[in-house]
Design a protein that fits this description.
Blueprint lengths: L9 E2 L21 E5 L3 H12 L3 E5 L3 H10 L4 E2 L7 E4 L6 H11 L4 E4 L5 H6 L5 E7 L19 E5 L6 H12 L4 E4 L2 H30 L4 H4 L3 H7 L9 H7 L1 H23 L3 H16 L11 E9 L4 H11 L6 E6 L5 E9 L3 H10 L5 E4 L2
Parallel strand pairs: 2-3, 2-5, 3-4, 5-6, 6-7, 8-9
Antiparallel strand pairs: 1-4, 7-8, 10-12, 10-13, 11-12
């Protein structure tokens, strides 16, 4: 199925009130332009977030009623492809991403394209164009469709970008800048590593929640009180099972190897728990639960104050893959980059990458950079 929309561009509101949404945020000049391909929960939320920041947003979707609803809700200014789009977000189901990304690249010949799918390696291997960079916002809700869209969905969420060796520094920086404006923390990962990690933190947890929910539902047929007894803990653990089931077969197919590996680990761990319970191994069970509790309470939250941030300046050659190498190194060192900028030199092929990181991570990052041949300097941000 293609992602073309029949008919002409449909504006949001009449010509006398076109300053609504995106345009009313402009203090003069022309609004930046974006296209959303697939206007559902995530695509609609991106559209709302961009319009709230002054962008003019087009939408493409095979469902004309969904497009009309997206315009009505304020997720879009207009429908149809925008050849002048600076950035296109492809938010189709995973199985339709390759064709939709290729179509998006052709529709805006000068623009960049990213996607929001939860499986990256197969897509990146299929799309051979340096204007494309894979992406994955780790955000969502149990609501379905554009009616559940929220302009603030990505605030304080994690949004992964997956550059490759072919990704230029400018492409990564431009996409990162737009994405970060919507409020998420940006994490840069190789596509294969992304798929391995999301199998652990997203895909297998969803399958586990769905399986446990299925067991409870089956038992409820014999004991009607089962689901009535489901209190906060059970509801919290199985919350994600309420998500749209239709997207998961494609996700599981695209990331089958990584999911299979994590499921194997989970089965071994559950077998160990079973043995501890059956054998009355109180010490082993307690140690396991204490380890899990410690890991759970240590999950990172929030962002530091400006006084806790430091600017790290890294002189670089202005060449393909340089920025990706630095951001991937930061990820390997477990150093979060809160902001990033490239300062190009007017004197040739050199520039400086500016990274904003937490003060207690500076020496770790600088050490890793120096070990890889860079010569970084740093200064407090405030």
């Amino acid at each position: 199925m293609g992602w073309r929309v029949a008919g002409s561009i449909v504006p949001h509101g009449d010509s006398r009130n076109r300053r609504s949404g995106a345009a009313e945020h402009m203090s003069g000049g022309t609004a930046r332009r974006a296209t959303i391909v697939g206007v559902g929960l995530i695509g609609g939320s991106i559209g709302m977030a961009l319009r709230a920041r002054g962008w003019h947003v087009h939408g493409v979707d095979p469902d004309s009623e969904r497009l009309a609803r997206a315009v009505e809700l304020g997720a879009l200014d207009a429908t149809g492809w925008d050849p002048d789009a600076e950035l296109t977000f492809v938010a189709t189901p995973v199985g339709q991403l390759p064709d939709a990304v290729v179509e998006a690249l052709a529709a805006a010949p000068e623009g960049l394209v990213t996607d929001v799918g939860s499986v990256k390696a197969p897509l990146v291997a299929t799309v051979d164009d340096d204007r494309f960079i894979g992406g994955h916002p780790m955000a969502g809700s149990e609501q379905e469709g554009v009616d559940g869209a929220d302009a603030e969905m990505f605030l304080d969420a994690i949004w992964v970008l997956t550059p490759t060796d072919a990704t230029t520094g400018d492409v990564l920086a431009r996409v990162r800048s737009v994405v970060s404006s919507m409020g998420p923390e940006i994490l840069t990962l190789p596509p294969e590593r992304h798929d391995s990690l999301v199998a652990m933190v997203s895909h297998v947890p969803h399958l586990t929640a769905a399986t446990l929910m299925g067991i409870a539902a089956a038992r409820s047929e014999e004991h009607s009180a089962v689901l009535r007894l489901a209190a906060g803990g059970f509801r919290d653990m199985t919350r994600v099972a309420a998500g749209h089931p239709g997207i998961w077969p494609d996700i599981c197919s695209g990331n089958a190897a990584a999911i299979d590996g994590v499921l194997e680990e989970l089965i071994r761990a559950l077998s160990a728990v079973r043995a501890e319970v059956a054998g009355g191994d109180r010490d082993g069970l307690l140690k396991r639960l204490e380890t899990a509790r410690s890991a759970r309470v240590s999950l990172p939250t929030g962002a530091p104050r400006p006084s806790e941030l430091v600017e790290v300046r890294v002189p670089v050659l202005d060449r393909q893959g340089e920025l990706a190498s630095i951001t991937l190194l930061a990820t390997d060192l477990d150093v979060n980059i809160y902001d990033l900028e490239i300062a190009h030199s007017a004197e040739g092929d050199r520039g400086v990458v500016l990274l904003i990181v937490e003060s207690d991570m500076v020496e770790r990052l600088k050490g890793g950079l120096m070990a890889n041949g860079y010569r970084p300097t740093s200064a407090p941000l405030a």
